[in-house]
Design a protein that fits this description.
Order of helices and strands of chain A: EHEHEEHHHHHHH
Strand content of chain A: 5-15%
Oligomer: homodimer
Largest interface: A-B, 45 and 45 residues
Distance between the termini of chain A: 26 Å
Number of domains of chain A: 2
Mean pLDDT of chain A: 95
Number of strands of chain A: 4
CATH topology of the largest domain in chain A: Glutathione S-transferase Yfyf (Class Pi), Chain A, domain 2
Chain lengths: ~220, ~220
């Protein structure tokens, strides 16, 4: 059985849970608490699994995979139906570019170790840290909104009316944005896609609040 | 003909130049200067092409693509030989995870707009900014080194003796690290791969110093 080493609130973990659910794949949930015990991701046993000390890690019958987007591509290649990547190379590039715009331009600036550096090493205030967080989320989502509004390809979801890897990455980012009180009023197209996704069991069942390690 | 909107020193641009060269694809070099004219990537004409205001943008006969890793996957799908992705799903996941570990965990923390925020908005000193830069590069490369040392799959390059997308992403990150005087003495395996890559024309011809817009 697939094992997913993950943390309920990690948005990279959340992406992989959505993909597993979407494909109807059962998995063993192995919690890795990023705050307890000084960070369980830093324990030697976890570092052996992933020297990056990051969740999620997926173990598929002994094949250990890291990086959420690489894991989702792997799941799509080994369990192709229902697909998370569209059929043409141009469309695949398009949905990957949306996923990467979030995974490379927004999320990395706001993960736990970066926020810790801001507060502990740079001695920024809580207010400055939160302003930083909201700045990158709001700027990144504004770009995404501009793209989705300009694109004839936008449908119920990011690409037409079928779920793709783009939606799988959008939803956890919005969850984070809401948690940090980011202004989402100016990204109605992104929010419409989010709302449509959140009507589907694959997304509902993956949300942080209902995971075994949720607090 | 393929057009590449890019900047000589942008490491995401550098990745795509390596991929184009590796596949023997001629392309028109369209410079986008990130520092001149208040940043040519912020001009309305460029924002129409890419609302994210980021280089590179690849235009393949009117198909406009963004995000370097999505562009490289597209080039590999539409021009499969020589390949940049290996043949098995597990190996593809592995090289993608290395590429993403750099593209998501190191590079985003050190791009121009983030460094500007540190200096202009947070009023950090030049020294604090450089310490930030080196911290994320050195931490990220240490993780990569640990993985490459532990992996039986490491060869001349990141995966065995054939170039993959992992090497295409490693090389520009090392270029950046050298430019910023990061300590690279503790990552000998990464540096060995870098040195091997830099003997190949695809990599040599893509390096920033020899591009048309180099200063």
């Amino acid at each position: 059985m697939i094992k997913l080493h993950n943390y309920f609130r990690s948005s990279a973990s959340y992406r992989v849970r959505i993909a597993l659910n979407f494909k109807g794949l059962p998995y063993e949930y192995v919690p890795v608490h990023l705050l307890k015990d000084g960070g369980q991701q830093l324990a030697p046993s976890f570092r052996t699994l992933n020297p990056d000390s990051l969740t999620p890690v997926l173990d598929d019958e002994g094949q250990v995979l890291t990086q959420s987007l690489a894991i989702i591509e792997y799941l799509d290649e080994t369990r192709p139906l229902p697909p998370l990547l569209p059929r043409t190379a141009v469309e695949r590039a398009y949905v990957r570019s949306i996923a990467l715009a979030i995974a490379c331009e927004i999320h990395p600036l706001n993960n736990l170790r970066v926020l810790r550096y801001l507060v502990k090493t740079l001695a920024l205030s809580e207010e400055q840290k939160n302003t930083w967080y909201r700045h990158w989320v709001e700027q990144g989502l504004a770009s995404l909104e501009a793209r989705l509004v300009a694109e004839a390809r936008t449908g119920l979801y990011a690409l037409g009316d079928a779920i793709t890897i783009a939606d799988v990455v959008i939803v956890p980012q919005i969850f984070n944005a809401q948690r940090m009180d980011c202004n989402l009023g100016s990204v109605p197209t992104v929010m419409r896609i989010y709302d449509h996704c959140m009507q589907l069991p694959a997304f509902i069942d993956a949300q942080p609040s209902t995971q075994p390690d949720a607090e």
